[in-house]
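Practice set, problem 2.
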Amino acid sequence: MSKFRSGVLYGQELMDLYADAKQNGYALPGVNAVGTSTVNAILEAAAKVESPVIVQLSFGGGHFYAGKSLKNDTLQASAAGCISAAMHVHAVAEMYGVPVVLHTDHCSLENIHWIDHLLDYQEGYYAKHGKPLFSSHMLDLSEETIEENIEICEKYLARMNKIEIGLEIELGITGGEEDGVDNSDVDVSKLYTHPSEVYYAYEKLSKISPNFSIAAAFGNVHGVYKPGNVKLSVEILENSQRHVEEQLGAQGTKPVSFVFHGGSGSSPEDIARSIEYGVIKMNLDTDMQWAFNCGVRDYYAEYADYVAEQIGNPDGDDVPNKKYYDPRKVLRAGEERFVERLEVSFADLNCIGRNK
C-alpha cells in the first residue's frame, strides 16, 4: 500500500510528507524542469525508485515552457508556462503512480508579479476545483533586510494559506549564478544565516500557518565547482534547529523544515548531515542540465553519420535517415541520461522506496 496518494499533493498532505521525511531521515529532490521532456523524466525516475518527488519551475523555466518568443514584460509568459506545466503534471502524475510536490523556484522582489499572476489564477482555480494547481511557491527576498523579507512573506503566506499552498523562504543568499540571477560577487558573510534569523522567521510565519520551509544559507553556491572551492557550514542548520527547539521548549522535534539550495557537487557526507539536521528538500538543476546535455551529446556522437544528411549513411547512399534525426529520439536520449542521474540523487538523499 502506498504511503502517499499519486498526483499533486497540497495543504496538509504537503506538511505530512515533510514531517515523514524528517522523521525517517530522507529528503526529496526538488528538480527544475523546463519542458515536458524534463517533467516526464522527473516523474519516470520517481516511479522507478517508488518515492515522492518535487517538480519545480523557475520564472525563466516557465517562460521557456510557454515560448521564448512571447512577451514577458510583467512575467505573464513565465506564469503562463508554469500554469501549463502544472496542468501537464496534474494530467499524468497519477499515471506514473507518483506523489508530486509542484513548486516554483526563486522569486525575488523584482519578479514578484510572476507569483501574483500565479496566485490570481489559482484563487479562481481553487474556487472552482477545491484545490490549488501548485503545492508551494518560493519567495527569495534575501536581498532585502530580514524585517522586510519576513513582512512580505507574511502577507503572501496569509494569501497562500487560504488556498492551501505552502511557502518556501530564503534567509541569506545562495552564491553563484542561476537563471540570470548572479550572486557570484556577493559579500561572503551573506552566505551564512544566523540561528536568530531562523527563529525570527519561524516565530513570525508560524503564527499564520505551519505550511512553510526555510532555505537557510550555509555557504551554498549555485553551479558546480572544483572540490574545496565551496565551503559549506552544515552546522549552521544544526545550530539553527537546536536554537528554535530551545526557544519553543521542544527539544528533539526538528520544528524547522530546511531546504538545501546550491547542492550540485556536494559530498554525500554533507548531504547526510544536512538531512540529519532537518533538510527535507534539496534543489537539483545544474547536474541535471549536464546529464540531459550528455545524453543528447552522446546520441549525436554515436549517430554522427546518420544525422549529417537526410538521405545517405554508412548503410547506403539512398537510405533515409528520418528515424535517426526524429527529435523524439534525441530528446529521449537526454531523458534517459537525466533519469539515470536523478536516480543517483534519490539514493544520495536516502529517498528510495519512500512511498511504500
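Problem 2, part (b): a different protein.
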Amino acid sequence: MTAFVVLHYRAIDYTRKCVDNIKALEGEKHIIIVDNASPDGTGALLREEYKGDREVSVLLNKENSGFARGNNYGVRYGKCKFSPDFTVVLNNDVEITQRDFISKIHDIYNSHPFDLLGPDIVSVFSGIHQSPKTLKGISLESVRKKMAYVKRSQNPILMLLSSGEKNSPALWRRAQRRRRAKQNIDSAVAREGVVLHGSCVIFSRRYIEEHPEPFYCKTFMYYEMEILEWLCRREGGLIRYDPAISVLHHQYMASKMEFSSILKQSQFVCKCLMDSLRAAEELMLMVEAGKMPETRESKIPALAEA
C-alpha cells in the first residue's frame, strides 16, 4: 500500500483536484490530508466532505506549523495507521499524470532500493524540469554563502527590482529558464546522491521505519530538501532521482491567495529561507562539535487527537 500526504492551507480547490487525481491512480493507496490550521475553515470542510471515504483521512493541525512539521504529522500518522510500502509527500498543486505511478515506484525500488526517490517534476508555468534541484549537497560553507546572498537580496531596492520581474509572467518565466539552464542538469538521466525538489518526494518503508518524522523540525518553509539530503548522506542513506516517474507542478497558483502583492510574498520567502539557513548552520555546527541534535519533531499532536 502507498500513502499520499497532502499538506493543505486555504487553497481548497487545489486540494480537491489533487485528491481526485490520486484516487484515479491504479493500485492500493490511502490519502492523508493535513490541514495546517487554515484560517478560512477549509480544513473542517474537507473533513466533512471526505467523512466516510475509506481512501481519505483529514487531519486538523492545531497551528500552522509549516512544511516540515505539517508533513511530519501526516507521515507519522500514515506509518502508524497503515504501515505503507511507500509514502509520497506532495504539494496540493502537483498533478500525477501516470496512472501506473504506484507500480512504477515499486519497479524502481526493485531495481534500485532507495530511501528517498524523486520524480521528474515539470513546472507548468515555466516548462523547466525542477528536479534534481542540485547535483551536489550542502556544506557549512555553502550554507553560509547562501545566507550572505539572501541577506543582500533583502536590500529594499533589490527586493523591488526582483518583485518587478516577478510581476511580469513573461520576464519571470524567462528568468527561471535562464537560471535552470546555467545549472546544466540533464533531467532525462537518473542519478543518485542529489538534492530532490520538495514538491513531490517518495520515502521507502525502510526509511520511514527509522525516521517516522523525516523533515528537520526547526524550519518553517524552504530549504527542507537540502537539509534532508545532508541528514540522509550523513547516515549513509540512498537518494535517487528517476525520470521514469513524472509529475506536473502547477506552482504559484495557491500562493497568490495568501499574499496581496509580489513584494510581500518575496519578503516572506526571504525571511523563511534565512530562518531555515540559520537552522541548517546550527545543526551542522552541533554535529561538528560532536553533539547529537534533535533532528526530528517531538511536539507533533498525538495521533489520538487526529
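Answer key, part (b): The longest strand covers residues 239-249. Residues 2-305 form a domain with the Spore Coat Polysaccharide Biosynthesis Protein SpsA; Chain A fold (CATH 3.90.550.10).
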